[in-house]
UniProtKB/TrEMBL annotation:
This is tRNA (adenine(58)-N(1))-methyltransferase non-catalytic subunit TRM6. It comes from the Eukaryota. Belongs to the TRM6/GCD10 family. One of its GO terms (biological process) is tRNA methylation. The keyword tRNA processing applies. Its main location: nucleus. The keyword tRNA processing applies. GO terms for cellular component: nucleus; tRNA (m1A) methyltransferase complex. It holds the Pfam family Gcd10p. Keywords: Nucleus, tRNA processing.
Length: 295
């Protein structure tokens, strides 16, 4: 079982990554809480310190403070009835118009926010809404489909090249649950732009199954920790999600490590030229290539 399940009743602390969403709102904000910080979500502002020590869940904002809402205080019907009473033309509206009016007014006057522990689904939705291009237009349902087609599960060895804010790498590490390995290849000296991996705040046991290597180091170095990870050669699964790098160039780098009967799932936006991609795929004899291109 994934160890993150045991943190369901954990409390919010300074330095924690959280997901904040206004009740009835459209935006999902991912942030790291700090003391003396003001949290702003759709014109609703409160002090971050006011939520420290409280469990994750529903909060009510009043006078710049956020306080937990008990189940006995949640009375949606009362709030809706007051909104209806304030409209003289409500009774003359159509059923569709009534529902639209209630949703609009509820969103405008809502003073409640959800403060939740980050999950793969919430992170994928948040970054897709905020800037879908940064995640290569990867929706949460597409991410689930990729993991399903790839057969990522406990104990798997997975090679990942991720340029979509680390959402694929985080999803793989989360599914491995502390057993197996996720080799994350990246450009440059250190892995950059992987906020989803940091936001998940994995336990040490789970996170130690993720290895982050530069593409250059992958090619020229075979010592120390690199040799330990790379001894898990002939990876049965390779996931490639790119924005500005042609996946074919990544394939040329990792070709020697692909298992002949393994799986390869490339996702690229924009798509590479069909000629170059098809020519290289002819070399992948016995490797099952599962296209996950965007619609």
């Amino acid at each position: 079982m994934n160890e993150r399940a045991s943190t369901h009743f954990s409390t919010i602390k300074e330095g924690d990554y959280v997901v904040v969403q206004k009740v009835g709102g459209e935006h999902i904000r991912v942030m790291r809480l700090a003391s003396k910080q003001k949290v702003l979500i759709e014109k609703l502002k409160f002090d971050a310190e006011s939520v420290f020590g409280h469990p994750y869940g529903l909060f009510e904002v009043s006078s710049g403070k956020a306080m937990p809402v008990c189940a006995s205080r949640i009375d949606r019907e009362e709030g809706v009835s007051k909104l209806v009473e304030g409209s003289k033309s409500f009774s003359t509206r159509t059923e569709y118009s009534k529902n639209k009016y209630i949703r609009r007014k509820t969103k405008k006057h809502s003073d409640r926010v959800l403060i939740l522990k980050p999950t793969i689904r919430l992170l994928a939705c948040s970054y897709y809404i905020k800037d879908c291009i940064r995640v290569s237009n990867l929706r949460v349902d597409q991410l689930g489909m990729i993991l399903q087609l790839a057969g990522v599960h406990h104990g798997k060895n997975v090679l990942v090249f991720d340029q979509v804010l680390g959402v694929v790498s985080a999803a793989v590490i989360d599914r491995l649950g502390g057993d197996g390995s996720c080799i994350h290849l990246h450009r440059g000296i250190i892995a950059q732009s992987i906020p989803c991996v940091h936001c998940m705040d994995f336990s040490e046991k789970v996170f130690l199954n993720g290895f982050f290597f530069s593409v250059v180091d992958y090619i020229v170095r075979r010592v120390g920790a690199y040799s330990v990870a790379l001894n898990l050669s002939n990876f049965p699964l390779t996931l490639i999600t790119t924005l500005c790098v042609d996946p074919v160039s990544v394939l040329e780098t990792v070709f020697q490590k692909l298992r002949p009967c393994g799986r390869l799932l490339p996702l690229h936006h924009p798509r590479p030229t069909k000629m170059k991609y098809s020519n290289f795929c002819q070399l992948l004899s016995g490797i099952k290539v599962i296209p996950t291109g965007l619609p």
